[in-house]
Each structure stands twice: as structure tokens, then as C-alpha cells.
């Protein structure tokens, strides 16, 4: 895992994951939004370059991303009102995050499909991290699991008696989330670095 | 007194950076620069945020709200912000020879300001408090 990837992950985590309440359902909301934004952003950037309108690339992409976010939020206002009410302007956090903007404006001569594949793979990797992060905070921080419910409400099931996990409720707070992100990043970076070393050793062995 | 409480609330109690997470990642990056550059970034962002907040609030209040299109205000905010930011950036480049792009922080602060305010004066106080909380970080 190179330095750039680590910094992108840190920036994305701080910008998107920390401000949201630590419930699993919000993790799913962000993951879906990230996929939608990356898909629309990549398509519009490709179209702008295809029609040689590079001068309007930034403005056009930002407007499309904002429109998509508004549309996404409207869908939640109609179907999952409680989530829309809780998140409020936090729907716009992924829109202007360095993660989305960095990948969308990444200069490359690849076609639409390889570019989509590359960008969506990055979102998929980050989504796994996001879902694990929110799931851990939901289960151990609050002792519950949440999902989309009926009648515009959030479905919530208590898994662990809150009195038993009082000391873990620290992870439901923002400082707890920061510490958790630092820990998960440390584990992830260590794991990927070990993996890279093994890969290099295997390649070196293959050459010999 | 009420506005003073609003200022304290968004500057310290519910800091835009720590509570709402606006610019948490960028604050680390900005603090690595020199003090002179950081203050220029601060003043440039402050002017663009205050200007955008005023125009967006007025348009939302008198145009979008009667048409029941208030949810479209981020697009208006983005449009005004891009225009104002380009103008200020051009000025800053000429006078101070610095170019800064603190787009995400400024845009999110404008959105927070419009979401949370109920009057023009309150929106200005919230915008200013958000920038103060960022400066403190």
C-alpha cells in the first residue's frame, strides 16, 4: 500500500466517516451515495473530454455531483425520512470529499469502461472499510444493529444489553471514532505492506 | 445576546471542524504551511463564505422558498460560490500572488450556514463562527 493510497484513505475517513452518527444504516447510505457519485462523476468527466469541453470540466462535474446529491437526498426524504432528517447536510460530505474529486479528476487516457472499473473498484475497497467501521461502532458502541425500516423509520434491533458494554460506548463518540480509524488504518497498512513484501519475494524467487 | 450564544455554539461547543467534521482532513494540511499563507487562506475563504452566504440566503428566502424549491439551494450556493471565488482568487493572485483552493471546506460551511440559520444576521454569525473554529484548529 503506497503513501498516496494511505493519505487518500485517511482524508476520506476524516471527511466522510467521522461526522456521521456511528450506525450501520448510515454506512449503507454513504456507500450507495459514493457509488452513485463515482458513476455519474466518471461518466460526465468522460463525456466532457469526449466533446472537448475541458474548460467546463470542473464546473460541469461539480454541478452534476451536486444535482445527483440533491436527487439522492430527495429519494431519502420521500422513502426514509428519519435518515434524511438525521443526516441533513451531511449528504454533501462525500460530494466534495477529496476521495471522490481526486478519483474523478484523475487524468487518464483510458476509455470509459476501464476508468469506471478502476474508480468503482476504489469505491468498493473503501466501502468495505466503511461498512466494517459503521458495523463495529453500531454493535459495540450502541449495542444495536440498524437497517432501513418501514414507515419512514430506522429499523433497530438491540443485540447487547447496553449496561454490559458501557465501557465500549466510547467508540460511539467522535474521539472514539478517530482512535478506531487510526487502529484500523494501522492494521490495514501493516497487512498490505506485508502482502507487498511477500509478493515481491515471490516475484524475485520466480525470476531466479 | 442570542447571536453571541450562536457564535459560542458554532465556534467552541459544536465546532464546525470537530462536531460537523468540516475540513477535518484539510486542517491538517493547511497547518503545515506558513502562518502568512494560512492567514491569506483564512481571509479569502472568509470573504467568499460570507458573500456566498448572504446571496444564497437572500435567493433562498425570496425566490426559492415561494416557489417551494428550497431543496435546490445547494446548486445556487455552488453557482454563487464559484463566481465569487473566481473573482476573489483573481484578486488574490494579483495582489498577494497566492492561489488557494479551499473549495470543499468553504462550500460545506455555506451549506451548514444556510441549513442552520433562520435570519440573514444569524447566517453571517454562523459563517463567521465556522471560520473561527477552523482557525482555532
Quick take:
The complex is a heterodimer of chains A (208) and B (137). By secondary structure, chain A is mainly alpha-helical. Chain A is built from seven helices and two strands.
What do these coordinates show?
The complex is a heterodimer of chains A (208) and B (137). Chain A has 208 residues and is mainly alpha-helical. Chain A is built from seven helices and two strands. In chain A, helix 2 packs antiparallel against helix 3 and helix 2 (24-50) runs antiparallel to helix 6. Chain A is flat, with a radius of gyration of 19 Å. The radius of gyration of chain B is 15 Å and the shape is globular. With 137 residues, chain B is an all-alpha fold. The longest helix of chain B has 30 residues, at 35-64. Chain B has helices at residues 2-13, 24-30, 35-64, 73-96, 103-116, 120-136. Chain B starts with a helix and ends with a helix. Chain B is built from six helices and no strands. Helix content of chain B is 76%, strand content 0%. At the A-B interface, helix 1 and helix 3 of A face helix 4 and helix 5 of B.
Beta-strand residue percentage of chain B:
under 5%
Order of helices and strands of chain B: HHHHHH
Question: Element order, helices and strands of chain A?
Answer: HHHHHHEEH
Report the major sheet of chain B.
none
Q: Kindly, what is the distance between the CA atoms of the first and last residues of chain A, rounded to a whole number of angstroms?
A: 25 Å
Question: How widely separated are the two ends of chain B?
Answer: 25 Å
Q: What is the arithmetic mean of pLDDT of chain B?
A: 78
Mean pLDDT of chain A: 83
Alpha-beta classification of chain B? mainly alpha
Shape of chain B: globular
The neighbouring-strand order within the major sheet of chain A is 1-2
Helical fraction of chain B equals over 70%
Q: What would you report as the Rg of chain A, rounded to the nearest angstrom?
A: 19 Å
Number of separate strands of chain A = 2
Pair with the biggest interface? A-B, 27 and 21 residues
Beta-strand proportion of chain A: under 5%
Helix content of chain A: 55-70%
Oligomer: heterodimer
Tell the overall outline of chain A. Answer: flat
Q: Helix segment count of chain B?
A: 6
Global Rg of chain B: 15 Å
Amino acid at each position: 500500500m503506497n503513501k498516496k493510497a494511505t493519505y487518500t484513505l485517511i482524508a476520506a475517513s476524516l471527511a466522510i466517516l467521522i461526522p456521521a452518527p456511528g450506525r450501520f444504516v448510515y454506512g449503507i447510505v454513504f456507500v450507495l451515495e459514493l457509488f452513485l457519485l463515482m458513476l455519474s462523476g466518471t461518466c460526465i468527466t468522460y463525456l466532457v473530454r469526449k466533446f472537448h469541453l475541458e474548460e467546463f470540466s470542473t464546473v460541469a462535474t461539480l454541478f452534476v455531483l451536486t444535482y445527483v446529491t440533491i436527487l439522492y437526498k430527495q429519494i431519502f426524504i420521500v422513502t426514509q425520512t428519519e435518515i434524511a432528517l438525521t443526516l441533513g447536510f451531511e449528504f454533501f460530505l462525500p460530494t466534495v470529499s477529496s476521495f471522490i474529486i481526486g478519483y474523478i479528476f484523475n487524468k487518464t487516457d483510458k476509455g470509459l469502461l476501464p476508468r469506471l472499473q478502476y474508480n468503482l473498484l476504489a469505491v468498493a475497497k473503501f466501502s468495505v472499510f466503511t461498512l466494517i467501521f459503521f458495523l463495529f461502532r453500531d454493535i459495540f458502541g450502541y449495542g444495536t444493529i440498524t437497517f432501513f425500516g418501514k414507515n419512514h423509520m430506522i429499523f433497530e434491533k438491540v443485540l447487547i444489553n447496553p449496561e454490559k458494554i458501557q465501557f465500549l460506548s466510547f467508540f460511539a463518540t467522535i474521539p472514539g471514532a478517530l482512535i478506531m480509524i487510526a487502529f484500523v488504518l494501522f492494521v490495514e497498512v501493516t497487512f498490505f505492506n506485508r502482502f507487498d513484501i511477500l509478493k515481491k519475494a515471490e516475484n524475485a524467487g520466480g525470476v531466479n | 445576546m442570542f447571536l453571541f450564544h450562536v457564535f459560542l455554539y458554532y465556534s467552541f461547543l459544536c465546532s464546525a471542524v470537530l462536531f460537523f467534521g468540516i475540513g477535518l482532513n484539510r486542517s491538517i494540511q493547511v497547518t503545515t504551511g506558513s502562518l502568512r499563507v494560512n492567514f491569506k487562506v483564512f481571509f479569502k475563504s472568509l470573504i467568499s463564505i460570507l458573500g456566498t452566504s448572504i446571496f444564497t440566503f437572500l435567493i433562498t428566502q425570496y425566490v426559492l422558498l415561494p416557489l417551494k424549491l428550497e431543496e435546490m439551494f445547494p446548486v445556487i450556493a455552488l453557482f454563487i460560490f464559484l463566481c465569487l471565488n473566481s473573482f476573489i482568487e483573481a484578486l488574490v493572485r494579483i495582489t498577494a500572488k497566492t492561489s488557494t483552493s479551499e473549495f470543499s471546506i468553504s462550500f460545506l460551511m455555506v451549506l451548514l450556514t444556510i441549513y442552520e440559520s433562520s435570519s440573514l444576521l444569524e447566517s453571517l454569525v454562523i459563517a463567521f463562527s465556522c471560520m473561527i473554529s477552523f482557525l482555532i484548529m
